[in-house]
Design goal:
Blueprint lengths: L1 E5 L21 E3 L2 E2 H9 L8 E6 L3 H7 L8 E4 L5 H15 L5 E5 L2 E3 L2 H17 L4 E6 L9 E12 L2 E11 L3 H10 L2 E10 L1 H11 L1 H13 L5 H8 L8 H4 L9 E6 L3 E3 L3 H8 L7 E3 L2 E4 L5 E4 L6 E4 L4 E5 L4 E5 L4 H10 L9
Parallel strand pairs: 1-4, 1-6, 4-5, 8-12, 14-16, 15-17, 16-18
Antiparallel strand pairs: 2-3, 6-11, 7-13, 8-11, 9-10, 9-11, 10-12, 18-19
Helix pairs in contact: 3-6, 3-7, 6-7, 7-8
């Protein structure tokens, strides 16, 4: 099986650490490794580096090479510019469909944490077996919900399809993106919904077929790139065609339009967290809700439920009587806010992008 990890996006909700010039996947947030390195580490016991691919922006190719020196250079698929997730996934799938159309692949995202790595690898293996047998065309891997999240997508699943090595597969029934509070609470309680991680095990031929069926205009442009791949014309065609592709999410372009009867769902406790925002990072790293989470030179007194990250080696950050606070100190920006106010960070960063402080974004 091949694995492709998607890496990119500025991650405004993790500002001021994550910026356009340094996406969150490349940053050291925990365990003295970047999220990208952690993602690869959890795969390596079951994958050779030859079978791991990275999809990223041209601007970050050198950083990928620096962080993953054992990754073959040919395994980096570089977009000449950002065109949303639909074209990014489509580019990789178009190439894979040409190179190894019927070999199972897993699609992953490089900005997540997964604590139960052994369980994760087992699910990948048995999902690969299911795809090889042709019992389903695609397997969606979901996290058993820990709370009624309004900020994540949800997968709806039905009756049990089969069980293999203590992994239960269910029939796919549908999707819901960021439901309201009441709906999220209903999903959390009913036992037939999982958080949608965007993790898929399938084959390139199936997913390419879905692009052609559900997003024909996008697939037509990608086909031109696909035809040129492996030739001397590839870079020329890529830089000419890719910037003109429709900007559309992968879910809207393909996933939500698939025949649900062809899909299976695994809902499991993977210890998964999307660290796209500081409050999500705290939830991922804390043992108890009242715990403080810190990094760097930090001293906290009489403080609870706060996250304090200090990226200046020559300075101590000291907090007293902090409750539900977020403090992030970088060499050029100090962010102090209530943890509950983190959603406002993205709005603030967007407001800075066109002004005199745009270099901080």
């Amino acid at each position: 099986m091949k694995a492709i990890i998607f890496v990119g996006g500025s991650g405004k909700r993790l500002w001021p650490l994550s910026r356009k010039s340094s996406p969150k996947q490349f940053l050291t947030i925990t365990q003295d490794k970047s999220l990208l390195q952690l993602c690869v580490d959890r795969l390596v016991p079951g994958f050779d580096m030859e079978d791991i691919y990275i999809s990223t922006n041209t601007d970050f190719v050198n950083e990928v090479k620096k962080q993953l020196p054992s990754l073959p250079a040919k395994n980096i698929i570089a977009e000449p510019m950002s065109r949303d997730v639909g074209p990014a996934v489509g580019l990789s799938i178009a190439i894979f469909a040409k190179l190894f159309p019927d070999e199972p692949i897993v699609i992953l995202w490089g900005d997540h944490l997964v604590k139960r790595e052994g369980r994760f690898r087992l699910i990948l293996k048995v999902s690969e077996d299911l795809i090889k047998k042709g019992e389903k065309k695609i397997v969606l891997i979901g996290q058993t919900p820990r709370f009624a999240s309004e900020n994540l997508g949800w997968i709806r699943y039905g009756e049990t399809l089969l069980e293999n090595k203590n992994v239960i597969f269910h029939n796919l029934e549908g999707f819901e993106y960021r439901p309201d509070k009441a709906t999220a609470e209903k999903y959390f309680e009913d036992g037939h919904h999982a958080w949608n991680l965007g993790y898929f095990v399938t084959t390139p031929s199936y997913l390419w077929q879905e692009f052609e069926r559900s997003a024909p205009k996008l697939a037509a442009g990608l086909s031109k790139i696909q035809d040129s791949y492996g030739t001397s014309e590839y870079q020329k065609v890529l830089t000419s065609v890719y910037p003109k592709l429709e900007e559309v999410s992968f879910d809207n372009a393909v996933v939500e339009k698939m025949d649900f009867k062809e899909g299976a769902v695994v809902s499991s406790d993977l210890g998964w967290s999307d660290v796209g925002a500081w409050e999500a990072l705290k939830e991922a790293l804390e043992r108890n809700h009242e715990d403080n989470v810190t990094q760097g030179k930090v001293i906290l007194e009489d403080s609870t439920d706060s996250l304090v990250y200090n990226y200046e080696e020559g300075k101590f950050v000291v907090g007293i009587d902090l409750n539900d606070f977020l403090v992030v100190n970088t060499p050029d920006v100090l962010l102090v806010t209530k943890k509950s106010s983190v959603p406002k960070v993205k709005k603030l960063v967007s407001s800075l992008e066109e002004g005199e402080l745009k270099d901080l974004t």
